[in-house]
Amino acid sequence: MIVQLLWKKFKKENFESNIDECGIELGTPNVGYTYTVTKTAVLHVITQGTGTFTYNGQTYHLKKGDLFLLKEGMEVSYTASKNNPWSYYWARMSGKQVMTYLSRSSIIDKVVEQQQNISDISRVIQDICHTAENMQIENSDDILLSQYLFELLYALQKTFPKKFTYTEQEVDQKIQFALQFMNQNYMYDISVSAIADASNLSRSYLYKTFQKHFSTSPKDYLHNLRMYHASQHLINSNDPIYAIAEKVGYHHDPLIFSRAFKRHFNMNPSEYRSAFGISQH
What we know:
Organism: Staphylococcus carnosus (strain TM300)
CATH class of the largest domain: Mainly Beta
CATH topology of the largest domain: Jelly Rolls
CATH architecture of the largest domain: Sandwich
InterPro entries: AraC-bd, Homeodomain-like_sf, HTH-like, HTH_AraC
Largest sheet: 6 strands, antiparallel
Order of helices and strands: EEEEEEEEEHHEHHHHHHHHH
Distance between the termini: 79 Å
Pfam families: AraC_binding (PF02311), HTH_18 (PF12833)
Radius of gyration: 30 Å
Number of domains: 2
Keywords: DNA-binding, Transcription, Transcription regulation
Structural class: alpha+beta
Protein name: Lactose operon transcription regulator
Number of helices: 11
Shape: elongated
């Protein structure tokens, strides 16, 4: 006989990260489960008593403060002890993001953790179960459960850390570099070709990626960047117009800068300073 103090199953709302079920179970002496796991990941945290967990030919004697993780495909057996049957909280999780984050913790490989300080993990899984017990969507408890899920994954990684690598998409890194290059060098006479070369991208690919992510071209982004900084110089300093032109990359002809500024703001630099400069406030 198994005594379930709580069993709650949820509709799958998020295929990247989801709490599917959770519960609180009181063990009966010498009673347990033997089966092949069909669920993605189920974490058990023992809060009282003792029991045994058997997997891959090894039997673990578990007690309060230990935990074990079930993963899809595992053949397992776990049973409450005769003299001091365990109680545990459990939560079933699923989703690509959940498994990615679980893989940052050694629990994904060891599946059993003993004699460790799991106070944070225990607190969060109990929060999950007690929130589920009195679930009120009108109070946005579904959002709270999502928060607890990520707290649980974070606590697992911090308590049982594991070396992992995270590789950003190469394209994203290069576009970030292109943005950084422009932000750091807009004051110089740089061209789109120079930006592409510095970012190790072709000019056409740089253009297509900027259009995709920022809905503008690299040339227009650089122009907008220069105009922004020019406006800030006009507002916050008394520098002459020709000096500001040089500070934002117009080194050859201040008139070209003034014309570009007027097209951008519908007023020339002097009019802009008169309207918004520090001497006007």
